[in-house]
Amino acid sequence: MAQSPAGNRRASTLMRVQFGEYQLDTETRTLRRGGQRIPVQSKAFDLLAYLIERRERVVCSDELLDALWSGLHVTPAALSTAVQKARQAVGDDGEHQAVLHTEHGKGFRFVAEVTDLSVPETAPPSSAHSGSESAGAAPKSLIAELKRRNVFRVGVAYGIVAWLLMEMASVVLPTFEAPHWVMKVLTFLVILGFPSALILAWAFELTPEGIKLEKSVDRAESITQQTGRKLDFSIIGLLALAVVFLAVDHYVLETEPEPATAAAERVLAAEPVELGKSIAVLPFLNMSADAGQEYFADGIAEELLNTLAQFEDLRVVGRTSSFSFRNSDANLTEIGEALNADVILEGSVRKAGDRVRITAQLNNAKDGFHLWSETYDRELTNIFAIQTEIATAIATTLRVRLSSEDRDRLATEPTENLEAYQAYLRGKRRLAAEETVEAIKLFEKAIDLDPEFALAYVGLADSFMVEDDSAGLLRMDVLERARAMANKALAIDARLGDAHAVLARIRWLETDFAGAAAAYQRAVTLGPSSQRAFFEYGSLLFFKFGRYEEALALTKRAVELDPLSAEPIQLAGEILRTLGRLEESQRWHELALEIDPDFAGVYFGVMGHHWFDTGRIDEAIISQRKGLIIDPNAWSYAIYGWLWLELGDPDEAEHWISRAYEMDPEEYYAIDALQALAIFRGDDAAARVYGDKAYEIRPRDELSLTFMRDRRIREGRYAEARALYEEHYPELLIEGDPRVEQSNVRYAVDLALVLDRTGDREQSELLLTRSLEELRNTPLIGIRGSAIFNVLIHAQRGEKQKALSALRQYIDAGWRGAWWWLLEKPELELLHDEPEYQAMVAEIEADMAAQLARVREMERNGELEPIPEIPATTQ
Fold it and tell me: What's the pTM value of the predicted model, to 2 decimals?
């Protein structure tokens, strides 16, 4: 039903009605409860009035849009907001729709019982023939006397003054946050004053000598007529004042509402308005009678998060951060500030039998104002349609630009099998809790129920990667299974960024770093809000390519997406440390510990700082010990043992490295540490056994490949040593133009000696030259530092003094990482008899002995927290 723009603010007829405790008056455009005026948004008031007039039927959305916004183009989100504000005004929470009922697919209906207050009460019938004429004369004379004494005028004036007083109080009292009882007391006094004013007007009269009792005034001297005229002017003035107040109240104050209301009006404006484009999805409340259905509520929220995360024009806060506010007392503004989110999506899920009710609400994080909300009461089989509607409504409200691919993705249901979907959600919950064996079973069940369920394949691939060989599988078997599942997922839906991220991790573990980088690039393109993909991509560029600035940018993006996840914060600290920005690095590490004081990764990062930056192995042991107590895994035990080897205590090192190997015989670092221990002790047979095993697991890794190369050189098997690089780093053997870069420079230096021993001196020298150029752009020390490889280059070239000067520089800077191994490399045989060299080696040995003594003293004094013995889990 179309109306003119001017008519949009009024119901088609004037009415004053009551429903429950509420009264609505279209003439004064007020909504009251118990006599107290309730602020209500203009469009919400019009919506209530329109629906009350048509309460005998369901009013469709199109009719409401046409009636309330005639001539304007607005989105359905505007109507949703008006409905939400109307429900808030009349105490209808939307969950139990006692006033405004949503007829899904049809429209809205006003369902509360209505009493019409605008119909005048019918006077009791009078008889023209009953009673004497004198009986009829008495009322006439009484009315005349009431007029003469100005009782009617006083009544009218009092009514106007009382109305103005109540209206002003309804505006002023909330401003001063006055309690509700103040308005009630004022209302009571105003009502009590009305009969008192009439009685006083009847009993007293204003005379030139002042106020006197009416019976004491001579009628001939009465001035009630003049007083009446003054009252008439006063009434006219009061009426004018009332008109001015109404105009200000309804046209000025309404056009300049308070910030929260203003935000709502801007959302409803016909012109596009840029709202925040960062959103946090809080865990949905489980309102089901069965507490075990929490997995379903979590799953709905997480799947919505994942869906929104694929929108290129929207930044979505990661699950770790947003779900950390489960059962939190923080308000929406506090949550928004903590997560750096502009808007927050919250909701609830009630599942009963084959039906589900999902309530979703989008809030402005800056002021908590509701931007959009809706309740979906559907059959469980419509769960994907609900998710699509919610995601679409959010995109519309925030004016997110959806590509055709986005719309196609929204229209595609992940599975038609509801049981498979529920198994998938249970699997996701188990995987989040690192219960990988159960997660695998649930994902496999989902796939059995629907072999075309792509997300279930991604979940299974993820589970294999997390579980690794704890289920009794060899690492290569695990990687192949995970690869097969990820590829199957992509064969079904090539747009799954998480599947590309799985493939990237697999390629990284296989040391196919270029392939991993390409897969991560695809993952972040498809999932612009995928915190994990950005974090892992940044890690790859940091650890394997030395592209530190790019790595830092990616990692900071991961922090932005998941600001309460300590892991990317810790990595950012590591990258900054490598860049030499140590003060910044320390602040990031402190932030990570502030967010998660029990995050072992920070202690491991500080350990690396002391190991590779400062040469304080004793401090590294203290830090690694703290992390080890929090996270006693095979890797942390193996590194702890490595540190004792650095201090020159092979027996203590063996205790912890053996513990790591017992916990996990396939842990790469435990195997490499055993190989290092054997080399330290001169046990060639044991070094060969563990070296072969390490090489089998990670043939391209620096430690396993370099150990293998050194052994081949010592045994004079140069052709076999060269074959290692032909297989894994063929770009270094391109004749006349080897490609030397940050990711392979150390291998280039190692290969140069092999080529020199096989007579290919020209290619060897070319590798050394290009390696030295690349190392000039590498930090001197640190976990990504050059690790005296330029010393090796000078020594290979026979440049003794340059080599010794460079080594002096490293030692003074704090280089100690793997010192005993690097100083025994074949390239440095040229220096072994040099007194200067021997003195520097002795200097390091003395430093390590002093640091070892300090650690032992701390142990004796009880300054170090004891490491609990963990039962071995050998297989």
Answer: 0.54
